[in-house]
Amino acid sequence: MPLIVYIFTLSAFALGLAEFVPIGLTDVMAQSLDVSIEQAGSAVTLYALGATFAAPVLTALTAGWSRKQAMLVTVLVFTAGSLLAAIATNLSTLLIARFVAGMGHGLFLAVASSTAARLVGPKKAGSAVAVVFGGFTIAMAIGVPISTYLGGVISWRPVLGAIAAFGALGFLGLLLGMKEPPKQQGHIGADSVGQALKAIFHPTLLVAALVTVLGYAGSFTAYTYIAPLLTDVTHVSGTTVSIFMLIYGVLAAIGNVIGGKMTDRIGVDRSSVIVISGIALVALGMWAFASSALAMGVLVALLGLFTFAAVPALQARLIGIAEQHAPHAHGVAAGLNIAGFNFGIALGSVLGGVTIGTVGISYMGMVGAVVSVLGLVLLMVRNRGGDYRAVVGPAA
Questions:
Q1: What is the pLDDT of residues 341-370, one digit of tens each?
Q2: What pTM value is reported for the model?
Q3: Could you give all domains of the chain from N- to C-terminal order, each with its CATH number?
């Protein structure tokens, strides 16, 4: 694997902390800002919406930029937004800061994942994407549980400040360690902003990204408010919540690796069906066994496994579809899928909040399962059509 891919991983570590640390701190942030849990959960939603907007749109608008220049600017935007979030004194300022930080997140991951996949070729694209997102899962396995604990014991503000510091460290790594990757032959039109913007609305790419949206919305409907679910319904302590999130992160790291290898071995279509099916079944189990601490420990772990095994499979799938239908728009295709992941997270957090406010927090798993099944049905319909089959890995 080229060294540059591991440099991307360093910055992805900071992004992973920023995206998921507030999930474990919703209670603490709500008390500090004197708002409801649902309002504090909006910090997750706005970050994801910033990434959703930035990933396809800004990827297209910066198509003529060098890849190094684009990544350096986006890491700066992310770091500034994270720092502002750490010092926010009210909910409005926090949400604006989180949206700005999310914009840097979305563009960086779109550029990094498409560049990594292009560097290694289609046969290893799944593994390359998995390495980039490995920074995410390392953050979840180590950083998020520690941050959840420290945020509860000390304050959530130093935790968000540390995320900004990691962003600055990632900027230095890119500045000093990244060389501009060579352009591939056969992709001379890749720098056309007009073509890139047009590709955002390519119906085949949009349908593929919708699969990602629904699959991830199902997962994060069940997970965004996992801390209050575990304390209020499962009746475990705050320390146990941190342990459960540690288990989630460890299994997420394992799932990311498994997803990359599985994608390269059996193809993107079969891999995608497996992981989205897994998300749906686990979410349903979290509704059925919400009162059992042992069952929830296992289910939270499995949710991390399947959710992050989905990343390389779904990302490589959309890049492969772009190879067939929009070969000039690899970066935009990657951006659409990053947008799909983040819009799914945003939608899941909204659905989780609505579920809490209507039928109750214990039903989040059931709602999440239904949403994931919708994504699975769409995926299987498109796979059967053949025209939507990606060219990454063996034919499925």
A1: 888 988 998 999 899 989 999 999 999 999
A2: 0.75
A3: 3-177+189-385 (1.20.1250.20)
